[in-house]
């Protein structure tokens, strides 16, 4: 399908113009008809592209599970032996009781060579699928400290999937010849079963921006020489699930038809650090809430297939992006 000439099946020029006109050279086609012809060709190309993508999605299945193995951090280098062996879609862990083998759609190796860009290459078809009007979800989960945030958000000079996906979507918008793509973003946090809109601080933000413009934020030095900026907004970072939603609206220039879709990028919180060492009080509650919502999410992916859905804030939010008309990519890190 992908290898065939995308213009196969497009009628010759003469069939697209008035039956009385026969054109042999495209340069002599009147301008308005030339434009119409180009539009028609673009539309057919677009239909062929969609068909090829749908076929490949059907072949690969709607859920894909990738594994990214975090490099051994400098601090652990002395303590950890090389316990993992990686092949393209397989990971073998050598344990004292014998090796254990796990299969994935793809395993990203441990070394630095497996760059953030390699992960995006696997995500790219899913972005295309989202732009075509399907709801899509990319989830990163794994133990605490295994690289979920690194994969989703990245660090300076190594941006993660969220930023790269946005860049790619803007690229798609810039080359789209058949429609107009509008992209919006939302961010929210699920903490202890409650939702918090991470971008909804508008009145406070406006107040701060005005203060900065007017030079009203003052520097203060405390007794230890610490510089503090008076009134600067500080938001506590909690161990929680962080969800980024990219919404796309694509309007076809030809017939005005609109396709709307949601692309969720989820950095699931890890609870192991919170639950170890006899956690109590709020820490214990946070750990329990994270564990509950992640295990419920696992159940829900299965339950959605059986058309039964259990209740958890996380799964309620993702419900329409994990079901039938959606594409799930599961970026597991270890
Ligand atoms: N592929 C990688 N290459 C280089 N450094 C990495 C990679 N993955 C993770 N790290 C580093 O490992 C540390 C832990 O990663 P990260 O914070 O992303 O883990 P996490 O799974 O999100 O943890 P938590 O569940 O506690 O939020 C960070 O210092 C991060 O920069």
TrEMBL record:
Name of the protein in its database record: Uncharacterized protein
Taxonomic path: Eukaryota, Viridiplantae, Streptophyta, Embryophyta, Tracheophyta
């Amino acid at each position: 399908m992908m290898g065939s000439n995308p213009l196969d099946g497009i009628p010759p020029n003469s069939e697209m113009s008035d039956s009385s006109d026969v054109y042999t050279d495209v340069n002599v086609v009147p301008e308005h008809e030339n434009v119409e012809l180009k539009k028609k060709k673009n539309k057919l190309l677009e239909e062929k592209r969609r068909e090829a993508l749908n076929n490949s999605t059907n072949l690969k299945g709607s859920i894909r599970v990738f594994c990214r193995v975090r490099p051994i951090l400098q601090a652990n280098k002395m303590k950890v032996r090389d316990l993992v062996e990686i092949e393209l879609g397989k990971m073998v862990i050598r344990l004292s009781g014998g090796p254990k083998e796990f299969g994935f759609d793809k395993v990203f190796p441990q070394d630095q060579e497996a760059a953030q860009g390699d992960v995006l290459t696997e995500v790219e078809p899913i972005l295309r699928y989202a732009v075509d009007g399907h709801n899509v979800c990319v989830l990163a989960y794994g133990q605490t400290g295994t690289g979920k945030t690194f994969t989703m958000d990245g660090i300076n000079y190594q941006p993660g999937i969220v930023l790269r996906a946005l860049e790619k979507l803007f690229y798609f918008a810039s080359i789209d010849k058949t429609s107009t793509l509008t992209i919006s973003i939302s961010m929210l946090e699920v903490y202890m079963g409650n939702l918090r809109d991470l971008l909804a601080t508008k009145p406070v933000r406006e107040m701060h921006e005005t203060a900065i413009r007017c030079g009203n934020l003052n520097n203060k030095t405390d007794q230890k020489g610490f510089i503090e900026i008076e009134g600067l907004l500080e938001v506590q970072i909690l161990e929680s699930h962080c969800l980024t939603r990219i919404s796309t609206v694509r309007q076809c220039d030809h017939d005005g038809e609109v396709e709307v879709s949601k692309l969720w990028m989820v950095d699931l919180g890890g609870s192991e650090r919170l639950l170890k060492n006899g956690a109590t009080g709020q820490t214990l509650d946070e750990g329990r809430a994270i564990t509950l919502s992640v295990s419920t999410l696992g159940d829900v992916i299965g339950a959605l297939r059986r058309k039964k859905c259990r209740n958890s804030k996380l799964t309620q939010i993702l419900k329409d992006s994990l079901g039938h008309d959606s594409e799930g990519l599961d970026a597991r890190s270890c």
